[in-house]
TrEMBL record:
DNA ligase that catalyzes the formation of phosphodiester linkages between 5'-phosphoryl and 3'-hydroxyl groups in double-stranded DNA using NAD as a coenzyme and as the energy source for the reaction. It is essential for DNA replication and repair of damaged DNA. GO terms for molecular function: DNA binding; DNA ligase (NAD+) activity; metal ion binding. The keyword RNA-binding does not apply. GO terms for biological process: DNA repair; DNA replication. Pfam families: BRCT, DNA_ligase_ZBD, HHH_2, OB_DNA_ligase. This is DNA ligase. InterPro entries: BRCT_dom, BRCT_dom_sf, DisA/LigA_HHH, DNAligase_N, Hlx-hairpin-Hlx_DNA-bd_motif, NA-bd_OB-fold, NAD_DNA_ligase_OB, RuvA_2-like. SUPFAM superfamilies: BRCT domain, Nucleic acid-binding proteins, RuvA domain 2-like. It comes from the Bacteria. Residues 260-344 form the BRCT domain. Keywords: DNA damage, DNA repair, DNA replication, Ligase, Magnesium, Metal-binding, NAD, Zinc.
Amino acid sequence: MLHFALTPVARLNPVAVGGVTVSNVTLHNIGEIHRLDVRIGDTVSVYRSGDVIPKVEKVWPEFRPNDTQEVHLPEQCPVCESPVVMPEGEALARCSGGLYCAAQRIEAIRHFVSRKAMDIEGLGDRWVESLLHLDLLQDVADIYHLHEHREKMLTIEKMGEKSVQNLFDAIENSKKTTLAAFIYALGIRGVGETTARMLANTFQTLDALRVADIEALKKTPDVGDITAEWIVDFFQAPHNLEVLDRLLAAGIHWDAPVAPTRQPFNGESWVITGTLSQMGRDEATQMLQALGARVSGSVSSKTKCLVAGEKAGSKLEKAEKLGIHVMNESEFIQLMQDYGQLEA
């Protein structure tokens, strides 16, 4: 998930601190600036401990000249000019241009091509850095135009004809995906794999999700106030929409939605812990989600059932204390067979 934080930095007249000449210090976030009441032109005390980045310790208002300037949160990202957003209750202001912002480019691409997103095998960090160096990747939509630059790509060290063709094939194969995987690939802050699946199930189409307001989003399981605001901010950023439209124009598609049916575990919270011998936890999670369950990472009084493998540990102890139903792997496999998720 993207949306990088905007971290304010103060530029100082160079000063020696602990044997090191310091000219830049972190101000952490806009709230810290307001707490210190630090302004452009102020005199400040700076401290540095060990290898920690120097920070402002104190502002000296008695030395403040008349022409100091108050610091305000910028409305636009200084890198890509996308809107800067900071939901109520959050300390950090962030750039909303996750798909477009050059400062987020490598992370955006890494997330987009990952196995649980668009699953583009072979497009690792080394290739991404080379493609960026050749100016072939400005954003994730450019991935689907790399085939137009075959000759240029063949100039990359250790990227021969076969490697290039394998990458092109993987990119082409990724165009057929699911709505849930595509939503996850967008890297919207607060939208992990489970939340992406819930959004896909709730809204059924990307067009419906793009225009959803905060109240509609909050009706989705796993989506609270702040996540709903992040989603709205993402789809209101013009640069994100430009990249999104280019991705769809490149041929990314998924099957039309099937009319939803009542799922047997709809709205239930399940937890999986320990080691499962006959399947991975990802596989078990997908089966539960297919039946409508929300799979959480922690046990609470709202947990419906805990699936406990080997070396279950503290989650099992907590579930037993709360009187939550506990199921071992054999019982879980039988249940999945009963609901058609596994062959008997």
